[in-house]
Amino acid sequence: MNSQSLKKANVETDEDSEEQEEEPEEFKNLDPQVKEYFILSKSLRMMLLGTLVVLIFSDPMVDILNDMGTVLQVDAF
User: Fold this and answer.
1) How many domains is the chain partitioned into structurally?
2) 27, 35 Cβ separation under 8 angstroms
3) What is the Cα–Cα distance from 67 to 2, expressed in whole angstroms?
4) CB contact at 8 A, 64 and 75
5) C-beta of residue 76 within 8 angstroms of C-beta of residue 69
6) 16 falls within a domain
7) Do 41 and 33 meet the contact criterion of CB atoms below 8 Å apart?
């Protein structure tokens, strides 16, 4: 093989290794059904936390932007 084909093969294996996601340590030794339950419950908790953060901070942020627009004399559109 020439050097270009070796480089191409190395690039392809690097891309394949980048695409594979590594499992967190906490899920590695679990039964597949138990693993699925824990992954789904963790994802649900994270989505609920994200939703809560958006609900808490969105209204005050809109108020701040509205006040900035008033101070800078930018018309609402």
Assistant:
1) 1
2) yes
3) 65
4) no
5) yes
6) no
7) no
Distance, CA of 13 to CA of 8 (rounded, Å): 9
pLDDT digits (tens, 9 = 90+) for 21-74: 787 777 777 888 888 898 899 999 999 999 999 999 999 999 999 999 999 999
Q: HSE, CB side, 13 Å, CA atoms: give it for residue 9.
A: 6
Query: Do 38 and 27 contact (CB within 8 A), yes or no?
Result: yes
Dist. CA 46–CA 59, nearest whole Å: 21
Contact 46, 39 (CB under 8 A): no
Is pLDDT above 70 for 16? no
Task: Evaluate whether residue 14 is within a structural domain.
Answer: no
